[in-house]
Amino acid sequence: MHENAPVVFRPDPAVASATRVARLMARVGVADAASLHAWSIADLPRFWNTVLSDLDLAWYHPYSQVLDRSRGLAWTRWFLGGQTNIVLNCLDRHVSAGGRGGATALIAEADDGSVRQLTYAELKTEVNRAAGLLRDLGIRPGERVGIYMPMVAEVVVALFACLQVGALAVPVFSAFGADALAVRLADAGAKLLFTADGGYRRGQAVPILPSAQKAAREVPTLEHLIVLRRTGEAVTLQPGRDHWWHERVAPRAPDTQTEVLEAEAGSLILYTSGTTGKPKGTVHTHAGCLATMTKEVGYAFDVYPGDRFCWLSDIGWMMGPWELIGGLALGATLVIFEGAPNWPKSDRLFEIVAKHRVTHLGLAPTAVRLLRRGGEEPSAGHDLSSLRILGSTGEPWDPESWAWYFEQVGGRRCPIINISGGTEMVGCLLSPLPVTPLKSCTLWGPGLGMDVDVVDDAGRSVRGAVGHLILRQPAPSLTKSFLNDDARYLKTYFERFGEEIWYHGDWAFVDQDGFWFLHGRSDDTIKVAGKRTGPAEVEAAVLAHPSASESAAVGVPDDLKGEALVVFVVVKRGVVESETLRAELSEAVISALGKTLRPKALRFVDALPKTRSGKILRRAIRAMWLGEPPGDLGTLENPDAVAAIPRSR
Prior knowledge:
By secondary structure, this protein is an alpha/beta fold.
């Protein structure tokens, strides 16, 4: 536990007093961060009116009512009567009325170190060209467009082009295999896909288009692929369906029209995996994303125009759209890069920070553990003095890695704004502020406007003990149900504690000094290197192999990735277990879900432990693998299967 941990960071009073959040505290008449949070949840309409005014977000038509929760927390509606667009706030107003068209909006560094920079005006022009092509190809407001691309400048163009025409963007991690891509595009009913011939990682060309084309064959709604020529590898386009970016986007005249959209118009469909079933499509709105993302980037990270913001994330993970929308809405310069943070040298990321004078750097704990291997003092070889704030999310920290990030990267002067929320809210339940003290690994406390609590199994508030993380009041960016599945949405978040409490699924702990910490997921969800997946997707990939009969996947602690996959397989009758088959099954997981999710171990077993109703007891499997007590096995139909797990090593 953390109850005896000391405070290791206290903000400099002069620095703290100059922050956005200090200005907000003065505006509403509170003296400290805890009082500001209490004020923020006491009257949500008052809070959001104040925040949106303070951050100067733009509307085509102002809203008349902040929220309507007459149908319950699960179905809250926000900013009624308002009309806006993310592109109005992130690009249009900077270029037209804001006088920032010449300011740098984007710095994109390629795997080989080459750099492309775009001003706000240049980025807007490129977005206009891509938006025009979307309209040429029949994309209308409310339709869905997939994005399956490397982290190059064009991925930013694609995202904002979707938003400009009112389409819902469906970003998918570019290392996912064809099957994972197809499931998401089919569920979303995507009509068009932005993709590329490939990308680069560690100096090698990595094919992307073959997986996109294979997935396209499984998605009947998909009519067009827009293909960026990135690697120049030989590929074959399907006539009439596939279009080269350089032939259709680059030469097109800019279409400057930005759709005027209702506040609750859809903007993003982001997929998150749970413990059972297919991936869940979380649905987010223009106003919801703007309100939450800009609030967090503005107050928690204290971003101003001209700051240089770099968060190590793919566009397919929540933090990709989060940093792009939140950063550009506030006039910052976004720094993205293709490839690995430790190639061609172990200190590549720190070279990028120094070269581009990055002010805000965000990393998952897994990335920090990876970078630690390159040496104890990254600041010794690079000038990291431009850094002002460090960020973190994705998984719980270990104290050693947190300390290294704080001391060696931030020089003990940069706070680690360790945030946690989820894809389903494209934002944070928990978040420090740049005016708060910090303990190692802490998230400090609830984010502004987030009425969060830790409760026991009966729903009673607890302190000094691990409990369930819950939300008692709505937030603008909470998912609008799950795409095509209201029942699953209600079951996931509202079955455990009732229809007026959002059950998040994390274990949390509040120490005697009021500092909050996370202790992982309370369900079977697996996070490998900060990337969330569910056992069902892994098991489906294994079961696609003709020799596999049953499978169970669990996450186990891993020094580098935070969690790693261990997969258990029952083979079909007559199949001989072998190292060759083990390798084939592991490769099936990699092919479907990407190299990040390579199993740490794959073991053959005679049977999987199941309840009498047929549910695989993954909790018991994981415990036995780790040498821990398996807990109550009273519901098991075959207890011998649990006992056999350690012998499967």
